[in-house]
Amino acid sequence: MKKKQNKMNASYRDNISERLRSEDFDVEVFNSLTFRQGDGVVTIKTPFEEKGKDLWVLSHYKVTNIENVPVKDRWKFSEATVRLYTTDESKDQTLHTGLNETMQIIFDKLLTDPKRQTIKSKTVV
User: Fold this and answer.
1) What pLDDT is attached to residue 34?
2) Can you name the residues that pair with 84 across neighbouring β-strands?
3) What angle do CA 58, 72, 124 make, to 5 degrees?
4) In this structure, are residues 87 and 51 in contact, taking their beta carbons and an 8 Å threshold?
5) Could you tell me if 89 and 106 are in contact, meaning their C-beta atoms sit under 8 angstroms apart?
6) Beta bridge mates, 81
7) pLDDT, tens digit, for every residue of 88-101?
């Protein structure tokens, strides 16, 4: 009886973790570009067969389209989203360098704003 009661009070992850560990999953890794076109969404995928060092996720939203949408559902209204894996290989370095420079420009803009606020939170695991 106790054993069954513990299972019912466990989190959903605890309840399915044993099953997940015992199954083999086919993990397909894709670089993708998803964007809105008319009343639909178009996704372009290209396979990524190497082990990625970095995963970049860039999303663009029109603020007017997400004003009254709950935060958890806003991804449905993105104008475009890119998911991109990069490696240390030379073929990825130009792109990797450009993305790093873009991030640095964003950090510089935010960190030089005199009205900025810095908030530190502990991550609950």
Assistant:
1) 87
2) 56
3) 90
4) yes
5) no
6) 34, 59
7) 888 888 998 999 99
One-letter amino acid at 84 equals: L
Please report, for residues 23, 66, 70, 96, the alpha-carbon distance to residue 109 in angstroms, rounded to integers and kept in the order given: 46, 24, 27, 20
Lookup result for tokens 């995928």 = 45
Task: Write out the two tokens for 50.
Answer: 């190497």
- The tokens describing 99, both together, are 């993305």
What pLDDT, on the 0 to 100 scale, is given for residue 6? 47
pLDDT tens-place string over residues 66-114: 999 998 888 888 888 998 988 888 888 899 899 999 999 998 998 899 9
Q: Is 85 within 8 Å of 52 (Cβ atoms)?
A: yes
The DSSP result for 18-78, as a single string, is HHHHHS------EEEEEEEETTEEEEEEEE--S--SEEEEEEE--HHHHTTS-GGGGGGG-
